[in-house]
Write a structure and sequence with these properties.
- The chain is 21% helix and 28% strand.
- The strands form six sheets. It has a nine-stranded mixed beta sheet. Strands 6, 8, 11, 12, 13 and 23 form a six-stranded antiparallel beta sheet that branches. Strands 15-16-21 form a three-stranded antiparallel beta sheet, with no helix packed on it.
- It is built from eleven helices and 24 strands.
- The chain is globular and about 70 Å long.
- The protein is of the alpha+beta class.
- The protein folds into two domains: 369 residues, no CATH class; 87 residues, no CATH class.
- 43% of the residues are buried.
């Protein structure tokens, strides 16, 4: 039986863990009322001025094939294969400023409660809700008869999902079969099963989205580049409450050798700060600050913050285990923060048809462009620009000269993004190796650099590898 204190109505998002063992049986809530918990991650990429870099519709945590798509090409796979080898919708929609990543909603019934019927509605103000499970009624501008003619994504775009006439608390006859770790772990939270009228069942409601809206925080560098200025950008949302607080926040720098360094910032009352500057902190760390033990420290801090915002312990563990690689092991400089409920409810309104205690724990994540990434972009810009013809011979070599190397398991994993092209010892040009070194949002970064400091070699590289941005109607 749950003994955790219930949070007041709030909002946030987080994510789930992924173990392969059988999920635990649902445990009833200790509350006398329905308890609804939601978690997910809100991700943005910001440059040195704290400005959003568009085109971050890259998916590094693919979900199983049975998940419903608003449009199958809205999210681009995070494969290291040259994008020229992919077909369909282009790599980058530069209107995409925000990734709403893997929110899930859990339901905890009162002890002894029979199954209940519920309606759940969620909207994304400034975004499309692109993937979801189980089946829901989706709505978005341009969506007609299950055909999505996507146009411009703007701050006025509204996407919605409606799960109506859900059965909550009846044991599911069958959950969808998958070996996908990204999907299996959320089932290991003590929660009630949910089933739609069409018979699709899960331990949770899942959805994702992409958006064109301002992040609640910005992280910009000062004139020297040595300090980060963290500013709040809540506008009218914060003015109704002088004690409105933001935080805690954590600045994390992860290096390729597996070590990392962290700096924590305590919660700050927005109404008490000049120029909305929450913090002014060093943008770099001393060599002695890096350690492999940092991971355990930040996990502990985030776990406590997630529970403070209303999650149960197993739900908080789920978030941290799910995103361990992307959060803590992938090289890069990133700022994490707990998003205040007022902002989340404004951006992502949630409605539940039955009276319930609702807690939403949102983790905000700002990926910060680094000097190392700028150096790689300059290397590409100096040229000479390579041609993707190298790929065929390199892959044949990796396959021992076989012409049907595309049947090999390593090739399938490289294409899907499960395996790095570098791991199969493929020889490649220096400019493409630098391109891979840019990380997950490399396509967005290279187009941003072409705007900032175009060169003939950079233009040729973008053309040769078909990296041009998606052209809206």
């Amino acid at each position: 039986m749950r003994l955790s204190a219930l949070a007041a109505f709030g909002f946030g998002l987080a994510v789930a863990t992924f173990a392969l063992a059988s999920p635990p049986a649902p445990v009833a809530s200790s509350s006398d009322k329905l308890v609804v918990h939601e978690w997910g991650t809100f991700t943005v990429l910001q440059d040195e001025r704290g400005k959003p870099v568009g085109g971050i519709n890259t998916d590094d945590e693919p979900v199983p094939h049975f998940v419903h798509d608003l449009h199958g090409m809205l999210l681009q796979r995070d494969s290291e294969m040259p994008p020229v080898y992919f077909k369909g919708w282009p790599r980058c929609d530069r209107d995409v400023y925000v990734r709403l990543e893997t929110p899930v909603i859990y339901f905890h019934l009162p002890a002894g409660s029979p199954p209940v019927k519920l309606d759940v509605d969620v909207s994304f103000n400034g975004g499309w809700l692109t993937q979801f499970y189980p089946d829901a009624k989706a709505a978005a501008p341009g969506l007609h008869d299950d055909h999505f003619e996507f146009g411009r994504l703007t701050e006025k775009t509204v996407g919605t999902l409606a799960w109506h006439d859900l059965t909550v608390g009846a044991p599911a006859r069958m959950l969808p079969e998958t070996e996908d770790k990204v999907w299996l772990a959320p089932r290991h939270v003590d929660a009630a099963d949910v089933t739609t009228p069409k018979g699709e069942s899960e331990r949770f409601l899942f959805y994702r989205g992409v958006g064109h809206l301002r992040a609640p925080l910005t992280a910009s560098r000062d004139a020297t580049g040595n300090k980060l200025l963290v500013r709040a950008d809540w506008g009218e949302l914060a003015r109704h409450d002088p004690a409105f607080k933001v935080g805690p926040l954590w600045l994390l720098d992860v290096r390729a050798d597996g070590t990392s360094a962290m700096r924590q910032i305590d919660p700050v009352a927005v109404g008490a700060i000049p120029e909305n500057i929450l913090a002014e902190i060093p943008a770099t760390f001393a060599p002695a600050d890096y350690s492999k033990d940092t991971l355990a420290t930040i996990r502990k801090e985030l776990h406590a913050a997630l529970m403070h915002d209303g999650l149960y312990s197993d739900e908080a563990d789920s978030l941290l285990n799910t995103w361990e690689v992307s959060y803590f092991r992938r090289p890069g400089l990133r700022l994490f923060f707990m998003v205040p409920p007022v902002w989340t409810q404004h951006a992502l309104p949630l409605k539940v048809s039955q009276s319930a205690y609702v807690s939403r724990a949102m983790v905000g994540r700002i990926e910060i462009v680094t000097p190392e990434q700028r150096a790689l972009l300059k290397k590409i810009g100096r040229g000479p620009a390579s041609n993707p013809d190298w790929v065929e011979s390199a892959l044949r070599s990796a396959g021992g000269g076989r012409e049907d190397y595309y049947r090999e398991d390593w090739y399938k994993k490289v294409m899907s993004g499960e395996k790095s092209l570098l791991d199969v010892n493929v020889a490649m040009p220096d400019d493409y190796r630098a391109y891979l070194g840019l990380g997950r949002f490399r396509n967005a970064l290279i187009l941003d650099e072409a705007d900032r400091q175009p060169t003939p070699a950079l233009t040729a590289f973008i053309r040769n590898y078909e990296l041009g941005a998606y052209k809206t109607r």
